């Protein structure tokens, strides 16, 4: 983090226009160089010098409280204890008294007018304070428009309507603040997942300290039923750990010495000692929170459209309101009080609240919900693009399959027996990083074979390797490698094809004069893969494609087993990249799903790069647009369904907000648009848009 840059958490920030004003007020502080406000995460980053008192003064108009980032926030005041809500309830008492008085003494009675005036002053005090300040600076937001409308209503004698408008505005503001806080619940829940204190042993001393004071290398003591406060490695004991908070998996995972464990996960039955491997701000849960907050601050394409629209729309509405108030009386002899009243109603109904909030609330809610289910979506743009996917491409090894291939067959074609074939293969492959090589090494170790030694190892990219064993140079690799060295006998070719049809990968071992034998290896298909592919097709994904470096026969065998639309085999990393580009050219939006380590170029080239196993690998978190924290594809259909639902909700919100405005403005023509109907239309639209977005909180898998 740069010098002189501080991050603060906010409480009480109620609307997007208040956020913009708060940011503007902070920029006006002379010692502040730059400021960035994240409305979704309720965070502000201030570059330069500014005290908390100065920041709170800048947000006094909205009652904003400011806290240093690492400090836990106070519990927000209950809904019914807030000063503005109490004022609204007192205002309602005066309104009811005003209507009773009007019924008995008449609307023109000084008592009736006095009661409504008291309702306006008590309920609208905070509103007028901000509205009049804005008016002097010619800043036109909802509070300015409302202030003008209510003062105007009082001037033309509409005291009762002015009072009702004040009350309805206060109620809708309170409900909107409540709804937006609800939308932020998912991120708050994530922040409270990890405990803020840990029990640590240093030398012989055991102490309970704040997580900020825990050092790398400290040993944490975890009792049964306790949550882990830090990421680390188990050095003593074994237990089942519920990792749902990180990966979204509900089934606990068994952990023993040497296994990685994460902050915020729940230790079930055993006692553990864990060596801390990361500082509090670098833990997986801290990274998730940081990425989710960054994602919520990103503007989605639909939000950018709405922001541009609102910029021109608000001044246009003000001009329309002025014309409605002035033209009929001036040109057509209309009644001034009637048309000024209609102009005030246009002002109120024209405020773009519902429109401005239509997209951010939906995106904040969806990203937060996904994070709680173990899916990291790194921005509104990726959420929208995932919702438009037509094609999903998968890397095979470790994604559709377990990624731990096993040796299934060893067959000799010469005077070398099977043990010798496996032993020589193991000697060469022990230098290689390839998953197939590790399968051979594992098999040889399990069999307990005598060790051979290889020298002069040389990798042959994409095809195999060669090395000297004894005083002979051996080659091991795909049949393609041997095609270049010597002709493969017909009988060997037949056996190779038979094994490949069974979905096995064949590696030949031989010299430049003779093929000595073969080793067949098969990667186990994940149990859930076929069901997930089926779900994706049901969701309307038009095409599922597997990209693999395996030979054609093996690739096709696995593709058929899983029910994929297409299989592209024998691909080198650059071919995978080319395949993604081709698929994008043919089909538009394409997702690439991989493990995020060796698939980085293809993940980057896809419209949406989806990495799985994010909980263990930083590479997956950094490369991908979407990270599935668990090491399986279970959450993929849920992610696509959530993204589609979010897109649908954003479209509904924008359409509804615009239609309500148009319908209300059309009521001006017959003179049916009253002030309280105008605020009902505006606030009703805002609340319906927010409530519609909150449906994403209940989005199930």
Automatic annotation (TrEMBL):
Residue ranges of every copy of the HMA domain listed in the record: 4-67
Membrane topology: Multi-pass membrane protein
Recorded superkingdom: Bacteria
The keyword Transport belongs to this UniProt entry's keyword annotation: yes
Regions that span the bilayer: 86-105, 111-128, 312-332, 344-368, 654-673
Alphabetized UniProt keyword annotations: ATP-binding, Cadmium, Cell membrane, Ion transport, Membrane, Metal-binding, Nucleotide-binding, Phosphoprotein, Translocase, Transmembrane, Transmembrane helix, Transport
Compartment(s) of residence: Cell membrane; Membrane
Catalytic reaction equation(s): Cd(2+)(in) + ATP + H2O = Cd(2+)(out) + ADP + phosphate + H(+)
UniProt EC number: 7.2.2.21
Enzyme class: translocase
Similarity comment: Belongs to the cation transport ATPase (P-type) (TC 3.A.3) family. Type IB subfamily.
Listed name of the protein: Cd(2+)-exporting ATPase
Species whose genome carries this gene: Bhargavaea changchunensis
């Amino acid at each position: 983090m740069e010098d002189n840059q501080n991050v603060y958490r906010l409480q009480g920030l109620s609307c997007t226009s208040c956020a913009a004003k708060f940011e503007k007020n902070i920029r006006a502080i002379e010692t502040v160089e730059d400021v960035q406000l994240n409305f979704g995460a309720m965070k502000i980053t201030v570059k330069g010098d500014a005290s908390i008192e100065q920041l709170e003064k800048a947000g006094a108009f909205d009652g904003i409280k400011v806290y240093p980032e690492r400090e836990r926030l106070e519990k927000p005041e209950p809904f019914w204890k807030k000063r503005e809500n109490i004022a609204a309830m007192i205002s309602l008492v005066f309104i009811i008294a005003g209507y009773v008085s009007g019924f008995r003494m008449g609307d023109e009675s000084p008592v009736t007018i006095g009661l409504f005036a008291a309702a306006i002053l008590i309920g609208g005090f905070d509103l007028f304070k901000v509205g009049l300040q804005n008016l002097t600076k010619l800043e036109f937001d909802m509070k300015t428009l409302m202030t003008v409308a209510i003062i105007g209503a009082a001037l033309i004698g509409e005291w009762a309507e002015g009072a009702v408008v004040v009350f309805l505005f206060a109620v809708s503001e309170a409900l909107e603040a409540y709804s937006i806080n609800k939308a932020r619940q998912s991120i708050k829940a994530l922040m409270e997942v990890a405990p803020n204190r840990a029990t640590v042993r240093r030398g012989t001393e055991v102490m309970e300290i704040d997580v900020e004071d825990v050092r790398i290398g400290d040993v944490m003591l975890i009792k049964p039923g306790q949550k882990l406060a830090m990421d680390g490695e188990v050095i003593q004991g074994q237990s089942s750990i519920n990792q749902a908070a990180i990966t979204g998996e509900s089934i606990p995972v068994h952990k023993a010495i040497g296994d990685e464990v994460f902050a915020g996960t729940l230790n079930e039955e055993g006692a553990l000692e864990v060596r801390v491997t990361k500082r509090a701000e670098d833990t997986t849960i801290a990274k998730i929170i940081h990425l989710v907050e960054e994602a919520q601050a990103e503007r989605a394409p639909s939000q950018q459209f709405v922001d541009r629209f609102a910029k021109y729309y608000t001044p246009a509405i003000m001009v329309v309101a002025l014309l409605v108030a002035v033209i009929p009386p001036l040109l057509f002899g209309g009644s001034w009080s009637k048309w000024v009243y209609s102009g005030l109603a246009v002002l109120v109904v024209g405020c773009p609240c519902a429109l401005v909030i239509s997209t951010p609330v939906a995106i904040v809610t969806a990203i937060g919900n996904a994070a709680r289910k173990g899916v990291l979506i790194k921005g509104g743009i990726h959420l929208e693009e995932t919702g438009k996917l037509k094609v999903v491409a998968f890397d095979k090894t470790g994604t559709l399959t377990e990624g731990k291939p096993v040796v299934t067959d060893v067959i000799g074609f010469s005077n070398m027996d099977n043990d010798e074939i496996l032993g020589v293969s193991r000697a060469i492959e022990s230098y290689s990083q390839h998953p197939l090589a590790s399968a051979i090494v594992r098999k040889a170790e399990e069999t307990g074979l005598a060790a051979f030694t290889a020298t002069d190892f040389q990798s042959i990219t994409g095809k195999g390797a060669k090395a000297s064993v004894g005083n002979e140079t051996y080659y091991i690799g795909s049949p393609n490698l041997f095609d270049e060295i010597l002709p493969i006998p017909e009988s060997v070719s037949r056996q190779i094809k038979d094994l490949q049809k069974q979905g096995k990968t064949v590696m030949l071992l031989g010299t430049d004069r003779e093929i000595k034998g073969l080793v067949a290896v098969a990667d186990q298909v994940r149990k859930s893969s076929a069901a997930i592919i089926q779900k994706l097709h049901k969701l309307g994904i038009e095409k599922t494609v597997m990209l693999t470096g395996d030979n054609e026969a093996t690739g096709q065998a696995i593709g058929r087993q899983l029910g994929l639309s297409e299989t592209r085999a024998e691909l080198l990393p650059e071919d995978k990249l080319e395949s993604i580009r081709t698929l994008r050219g043919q089909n538009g939006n394409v997702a690439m799903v991989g493990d995020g380590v060796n698939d980085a170029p293809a993940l980057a080239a896809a419209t949406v790069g989806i990495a799985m196993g994010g909980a263990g690998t930083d590479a997956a978190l950094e490369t991908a647009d979407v990270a599935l924290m668990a090491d399986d594809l279970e959450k993929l259909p849920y992610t696509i369904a959530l993204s589609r639902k979010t897109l649908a909700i954003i479209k509904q919100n924008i359409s509804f907000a615009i239609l309500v405005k148009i319908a209300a403005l059309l009521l001006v023509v017959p003179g049916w648009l009253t002030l309280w109907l105008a605020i009902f239309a505006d606030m009703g639209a805002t609340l319906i848009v927010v409530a519609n977005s909150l449906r994403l909180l209940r989005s199930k898998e």
